[in-house]
Design goal:
Length: 143
């Protein structure tokens, strides 16, 4: 794991945290607030913010590492990123929200929004990691 991997993982972590804030902290916040005591209050959730940061750091570095294992030099970066983002959404985002829906009394409309927005965010992360390409050769290394 070289310097590029660590930089890519850090950028991906920040992007995951930012997208999570946009999706859940802004776009879905009214839906969560309507559920009342099912979720932590703003004051209580502040005590758990470090777990949220850790979760997004894990997402950023895991996506970077997994993408680096399957990167193909002969294919378009955008198509690889799109494919990777869809695969990650099918692997984690979509099943996660479906499990939450099965075990928590969440409104179907809210879960539908989580599925759509979460999938879009995951695909965007896939495109970002493909653009960053953690195993890409820098121009100075090319013949």
């Amino acid at each position: 794991m070289d310097k590029r991997f660590w930089v890519c993982g850090l950028v991906m972590s920040v992007a995951a945290l930012l997208l999570g804030f946009i999706v859940h902290g802004l776009l879905l916040a009214p839906g969560y607030a309507a559920l009342g005591a099912m979720y932590r209050s703003d004051d209580d959730s502040r005590h758990y913010a470090h777990w949220m940061v850790l979760a997004h750091v894990l997402v950023g570095f895991a996506m970077t590492w997994i993408y680096a294992q399957g990167f193909s030099d002969g294919r378009s970066s955008a198509m690889q990123g799109l494919r990777f983002g869809v695969a990650m959404a099918l692997f984690s985002t979509i099943p996660g929200y479906l499990v939450y829906y099965a075990v928590q009394p969440l409104p179907a409309a809210l879960v539908a929004k989580q599925l759509v927005l979460g999938t879009i965010a995951t695909v965007l992360l896939g495109l970002l990691v493909a653009w960053l390409q953690p195993r890409r050769k820098v121009l100075a290394e090319l013949p």
